Amino acid sequence: MSPAQALARCYAHIKRELLFGEFGPGRRLEATRIADQLGVSITPVRDVLNRLVGEDLVIAKSGDGFHVPWLTQDELHDLYLWNGFVSDLAVRAPSQRSAPSPPSSDSYAARAASFFAGLSVGSRPIEWAMRRNNEWLSRARAVEPDVMDGIDEELNELLAMLEQNDQRNLIAVLRRYHRRRERAADLVIRAMRRRYREEDPAPL
After folding, report:
1. What is the rounded CA–CA span in Å between residue 133 and residue 80?
2. A Pfam family in this protein (predicted)?
């Protein structure tokens, strides 16, 4: 495996585990252990972890290595607020929106990420912002079904409006969608802490 291939493989694996897999909030990420699991040297793993520090998905603690950060209630509230603002821009942008690509799984979190990615297609700055939002919100969305009712129906309504290009109603429902989550930020944070503290805390 070439150095470039090893780097790409490490990046894809670690990013996937951060967003949807075993590397949940609060975890310490041991580069040596990850390298052993992937069958690569420690160099590409460290390079990837440093890159992910730059993407704000990992934090580096002096003398204590790399960790997956926890969101605070205020940070999650602001992320929901920011995602609503970017969504509003996406709907109003003159660019052509597209139907969402098939989600990576049938989970609510994957379907929501696919919807917002499709909403932002056509404007590269909006796509970039939405991609980061999807990453930052992935773990929160994973627990939203634990604290909010009717979210699958809510998402289906948004998907139908996007498909019909019903801009006025889409804006109104998106605002309601995000306001609901801003109000529930404390419940979502508590659900995240319950879920990820109950998992095996061993470093990865």
Report:
1. 9
2. GntR
List residues bridging with 29 in a β-sheet: 66
pLDDT along the chain (204 residues), means of 10: 88 93 90 94 96 95 90 97 97 71 78 93 92 96 96 94 89 97 97 79 48
* pLDDT tens-digit series, residues 19-59: 988 898 999 999 999 999 999 999 999 999 999 999 999 99
DSSP collapsed to 3 states, the chain: CCHHHHHHHHHHHHHHHHHHCCCCCCCEECHHHHHHHHCCCHHHHHHHHHHHHHCCCCEEECCCEEECCCCCHHHHHHHHHHHHHHHHHHHHCCCCCCCCCCCCCCCHHHHHHHHHHHHCCCCHHHHHHHHHHHHHHHHHHHHHHHHCCCHHHHHHHHHHHHHHCCHHHHHHHHHHHHHHHHHCHHHHHHHHHHHHHHCCCCCC
Q: What is the pLDDT of residues 93-108, one digit of tens each?
A: 876 666 666 666 788 9
Domain 3-69 is found in CATH 1.10.10.10: yes
Break the chain into its structural domains and give their ranges: 3-69, 73-192
